[in-house]
């Protein structure tokens, strides 16, 4: 019968050999990035891009959520759409890019929380889109070009300004 220290050493060697060949532990979790803040113009068409990275080229996905639900569920009349995903190989991973298209930016869009999500077998990464603008009614803010975050309150499905 093998001695306890010798047996433990053999078990350790076996575990290192068995798990050394799998690269799942070496894979990085997904990442996602969007610009810090967008300054929308009400009534204008606008595209917002999100970029993600996954080390799982065959199973990583990227998508947008609007108030925690799929964009097409909140915007059933297609006022806001997601473009198809663009994929580009990058070393051992994959760069994913997906844009939101706002046909005519509205108060509903301003008051909706948009999140870009990248998911793969190692986990999930997400970023929330931030809107910034100057209040056109405040000449001091316009002159100094200081951004102001507007607050919204929930009313029904969409969120409208308070």
Task: Tell me what the structure shows.
- There is one protein chain.
- By secondary structure, the protein is α+β, with helices and mostly antiparallel strands.
- It has four helices and eleven strands; from the N terminus they run αββββαβββαββαββ.
- Strands 1, 2, 5, 6 and 7 form a five-stranded antiparallel β-sheet that branches. Strands 4-3-8-9 form a four-stranded antiparallel β-sheet.
- The longest helix is centred in the N-terminal third of the chain and has 17 residues, at 4-20.
- The N and C termini lie far apart (78 Å).
- Residues 1-25, 137-149 and 154-162 have low confidence and may be disordered.
CATH level 4 superfamily of one domain: Immunoglobulins
Judging from the principal axes of the Cα atoms, what is the shape?
elongated
Please outline the major beta sheet: 5 strands, antiparallel
Find the CATH topology of one domain.
Answer: Immunoglobulin-like
Structural class: alpha+beta
Enumerate how many helices there are, as a single number.
Answer: 4
Radius of gyration: 23 Å
Low-confidence stretches: 1-25, 137-149, 154-162
Average pLDDT: 76
User: How much of the residues is beta strand, in percent?
Assistant: 35-45%
Order of H and E elements: HEEEEHEEEHEEHEE
CATH architecture of one domain: Sandwich
Q: For the terminal residues, how far apart are their CA atoms? A: 78 Å
Number of strands: 11
CATH class of one domain: Mainly Beta
């Amino acid at each position: 019968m093998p001695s306890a220290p010798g047996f433990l050493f053999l078990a350790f060697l076996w575990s290192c050999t068995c798990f050394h060949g799998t690269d799942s532990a070496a894979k990085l979790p997904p990442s996602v990035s969007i610009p810090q803040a967008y300054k929308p113009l009400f009534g204008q068409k606008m595209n917002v891009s999100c970029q993600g990275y996954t080390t799982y080229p065959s199973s990583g996905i990227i998508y947008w959520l609007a108030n925690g639900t799929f964009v097409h569920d909140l915007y059933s009349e297609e006022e806001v759409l997601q473009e198809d995903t663009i994929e580009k190989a990058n070393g051992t991973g994959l760069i994913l890019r997906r844009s939101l298209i706002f046909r005519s930016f509205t108060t509903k869009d301003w008051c909706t929380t948009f999140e870009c999500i990248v998911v793969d077998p190692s986990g999930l990464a997400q970023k929330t889109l931030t809107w910034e603008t100057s209040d056109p009614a405040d000449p001091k803010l316009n002159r100094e070009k200081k951004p102001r975050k507007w607050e919204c309150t929930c009313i029904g499905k969409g969120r409208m300004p308070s």
